[in-house]
Write a sequence for this structure.
């Protein structure tokens, strides 16, 4: 029986969603193979939380915990932290230094994919289509006319390193641009402003399953709001249709692009990439390496459509992580 530390929480606005994902992982793990330990990674504490909600401090020197005078170390870490420090490479690097296997991608891939600007810059030479973008850092002079001349209206203002649509605004009028930028700065000190792409939004998971890179069934996103924002993602203001209502040609293009990106980046673990189909061509928006893992989340929906259960999905991730060290 392998002792599995399920890390959840994190330091970003997404920590509550991460706690839900982590709890689902704990509930769904096959208890005949794994002993799950819920580990809350929070700004003010790292603790193991037992079934009675008792907390035990994690020793950061070796990522261990003492319970009833017994020291517990872990065979593997299941990473369920959305945002920093679980999705941006920090936990991956820390665990690699300790030689503890973990289920997400390696630290470089995590840092790269978490940075929208850098990810899209790396992929462009490979012919991956993206929106027109404009980049600013906190403290830069803001030239509204120059920004709009480059990206047009409407446009999207996004924190460069953030998830779950926190801090994202759709700007339709030039006078709203500065407010949107200030809103994005609440999440990150780097901002990416992108042109509006009119088309069908789709989300596609690519995973290594039993040693083979597979593309999961594609999900079509239909938001009641202007875009797939936090309300749409987590408060029922959207329809998520799996499989997506797109043509066979479009389906093949999205699958080919998503799988190619996974390979270009030398990814491992889970990935969920977002695209807008414009005149049948997929334009990449971003990649998530720690996507939501609740039963209602997009990646588990796609796994179900591929006849992969949550215990199989999570168990596979653990076994692949353990095999990295063999």
């Amino acid at each position: 029986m392998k002792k599995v530390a399920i890390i959840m929480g994190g330091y970003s606005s997404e920590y509550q969603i991460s706690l839900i994902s982590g709890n689902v992982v704990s509930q769904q793990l096959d208890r005949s193979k794994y002993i799950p330990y819920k580990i809350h990674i929070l700004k003010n504490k790292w603790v193991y939380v037992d079934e009675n909600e008792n907390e035990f401090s994690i020793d950061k020197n070796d990522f261990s915990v003492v319970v009833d005078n017994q020291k517990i170390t872990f065979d593997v870490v299941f990473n369920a932290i959305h945002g920093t420090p679980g999705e941006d490479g920090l936990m991956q690097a820390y665990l690699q230094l300790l030689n503890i296997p973990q289920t997400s991608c390696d630290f470089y891939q995590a840092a790269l994919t978490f940075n929208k600007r850098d990810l899209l810059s790396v992929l462009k030479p490979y012919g991956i289509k993206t929106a027109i973008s404009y980049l600013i850092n906190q403290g830069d002079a803001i030239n509204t006319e120059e920004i709009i001349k480059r990206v047009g209206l409407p446009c999207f203002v996004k924190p460069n390193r953030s998830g779950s649509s926190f801090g994202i605004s759709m700007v339709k009028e030039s006078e709203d641009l500065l407010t949107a930028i200030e809103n994005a700065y609440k999440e990150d000190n780097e901002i990416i402003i992108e042109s509006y792409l009119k088309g069908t939004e789709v989300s596609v998971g690519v995973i290594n399953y039993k040693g083979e890179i597979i593309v999961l069934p594609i999900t079509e996103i239909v938001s009641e709001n202007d875009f797939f924002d936090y309300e749409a993602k987590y408060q029922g203001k959207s329809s998520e249709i799996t499989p997506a209502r797109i043509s066979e040609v479009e389906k093949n293009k999205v699958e080919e692009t998503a799988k190619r990106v996974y390979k270009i980046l030398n990814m491992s673990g889970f990935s969920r990439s977002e695209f807008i189909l414009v005149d049948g061509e997929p334009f990449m928006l971003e990649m998530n390496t720690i996507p939501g893992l609740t039963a209602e989340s997009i990646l588990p929906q796609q796994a179900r459509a591929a006849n992969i259960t949550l215990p199989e999905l999570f168990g596979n991730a653990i076994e692949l992580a353990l095999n990295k060290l063999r």
Notes: The mean pLDDT is 93. The first strand starts at residue 2 and ends at 9. The radius of gyration is 20 Å. The CA atoms of residues 300 and 308 lie 9 Å apart.
